[in-house]
Write a structure and sequence with these properties.
Length: about 350
């Protein structure tokens, strides 16, 4: 099986088992693929050819009973109990009559050829490995016709070979993991998108995601991203409050008594806290985190993490006298990755 030049290529040339293009249709590229020579159904798959105005079409001769076993969607369309015109035509046709033609719109013929070969148990025609683009196209068709279980044997070969590419093509793998019910991949890819997502300017959030991904998953990923960002902002605010809480509160005000953080001599400790508070406020303002600017809130979580991880205290506090500051002061910078793992 030859791979296409791009994940979205739809030229029918290169499909194993095809006959030469039909010379009677010069404006078309026509392929005839006899998946099952004694088949009773011809699947007609029209498709545009990338980079051309010509119309491509592939005809797959297949067995309707095999389709019904492999796909609940085809079963509803073609079974003997179905009222669809295609099913009636198959049931009423004579044994020597032409196969019933069924048009399948918007399907990738190369991906469909792989699936049809697989469910007709023609292993010699099924590739042992697929590119991420090919696997994505197979996932679209499997999701459309509910054929995941029928391909499980092959998925156990194909997916592990390309799973490492999920970080390179997260949005394609988000759909692949959903279509093929791979929860472990779905979890990792979702987390990657949560960390790297940047809201598009002038477009809806949906525009960034693959159109085949169900809206539920899009909403859940965006919800978790917003929750993580809010936790980051809350953490910054709590850190500033920790150093800004009065040490000797007004008697009439209760519940706001703070604790000193620095481990200096008693008469120097409060000044140290004040110094750290001022430094934190200045640094958070510098990166737009306090008060949170629109630019900061529209950044990716990864970018926020890099900004916060880059914050450092002056050398005279951390480097020359590291014991003056409790470990909790360093936590937001050195433990940020661990906090993200816990938050997502």
């Amino acid at each position: 099986m030859s791979s296409s030049a791009s994940p979205n290529a739809t030229d029918v040339s290169g499909i194993p088992g095809t006959s030469p293009s039909d010379p009677s249709t010069p404006e078309s590229k026509v392929a005839h693929i006899n998946i099952y020579p004694a088949g009773d159904i011809t699947l007609a798959v029209p498709h545009s050819v990338e980079g051309s105005t010509k119309q491509a079409i592939a005809y797959f001769l297949v067995n309707s009973q095999i389709l019904c076993v492999a796909s609940p969607v085809f079963r509803a369309m073609l079974s003997k109990t179905s009222n669809f015109k295609e099913a009636v035509s198959v049931s009423n046709k004579a044994s020597n009559s032409e196969p019933t033609e069924v048009q399948l719109l918007d399907d990738n013929p190369k991906a469909l050829a792989i699936i049809l070969r697989a469910i007709h148990l023609q292993s010699e025609w099924v590739p042992n490995s697929l590119t991420t683009g090919q696997l994505y196209e197979v996932a679209i068709i499997c999701d459309k016709y509910d054929m995941q279980r029928s391909l499980e044997h092959w998925l156990q070969k194909w997916i592990p070979q390309r799973e490492s590419e999920a970080s390179t093509y997260p949005h394609k793998w988000l759909f692949i993991s959903i279509a093929f019910s791979r929860k472990d991949i779905l979890s990792n890819v979702s987390r990657s998108i949560i960390l790297s997502y940047v809201p598009p300017k002038g477009l809806s959030s949906r525009a960034v995601f693959d159109p085949h991904v169900p809206q539920f998953y899009v909403d859940e990923i965006l919800r978790k991203r917003e929750a993580v960002i809010q936790r980051i902002l809350d953490y910054i605010a709590s850190l500033l409050y920790e150093y800004g809480a009065p040490i000797n509160p007004i008697p009439l005000v209760s519940g706001i008594n703070g604790e000193l953080k620095c481990q200096l001599k008693p008469h120097e400790t409060e000044l140290c806290d004040i110094f750290i508070l001022g430094h934190l406020i200045r640094e958070f303002k510098r990166i737009g985190a306090y008060p949170p600017s629109d630019t900061f809130k529209r950044s990716s979580v990864n970018y926020m993490k890099d900004l916060l991880s880059s914050l450092k205290f002056p050398d005279e506090i951390i480097v020359q006298k590291p014991r003056r500051v409790s470990p909790s002061v360093e936590a937001p910078f050195f433990l940020f990755d661990l906090l993200l793992l816990w938050w997502i």
